[in-house]
Amino acid sequence: MRIQFQQGYSKTGVVEWWLTVVYGPQDDQEKVQFLQDLSELRNSINGKWLVIGDFNLILQAQDKSNQNLNRRMMGIFRNWVNRIHLKELKLCGRRFTWSNDVTQTRIDRAFCTADWDMMLPGCQLQALSSSVSDHCPLLMVGQREIARYSGFRFEVFWPQV
After folding, report:
1. Tens digit of each residue's pLDDT (9 = 90 or more) over 135-150
2. Number of C-alpha atoms within 13 angstroms, CB side, residue 144?
3. Would the pTM of this model clear 0.70, i.e. be above it?
4. Which range of residues forms the domain containing residue 27?
5. What SS3 state is found at 130?
6. Which of 54, 66, 107, 137 could pair covalently with 128 via S-S, beta carbons 3.0-4.6 A apart?
């Protein structure tokens, strides 16, 4: 399932960017098709793009709490990220995003294009806890620079000195 919309703001007004929310399939063949569909979607989008959600894929062995790994799918996923030049947003707060009480994995992620990252530099994901889901909610946080006034400031008490 993918949901897309355009929205965003900057100091100069509205900035157009794309958001795609994903829920990746379980089957390996469907995962390959899912990544191909996302590649085609990326090719049709001009500009800033953020894709976030449950990919049901891991990038590296450290993303899983056991050694039951599908290295072929890991390679396909890594190649996809590199081929369409995506940057992953940093995850803070915990190492894994999903658990079934036996295995823990990091399958929930956010990737962005370089121009999206330049628009909102320093954005990261904060992993939260949940008592209602086997996935942890992800909160995207960032810092927005506040322009500082560097001109002259007149203090009211000066004439009284």
Report:
1. 989 989 886 555 566 6
2. 6
3. yes
4. 2-160
5. coil
6. 137
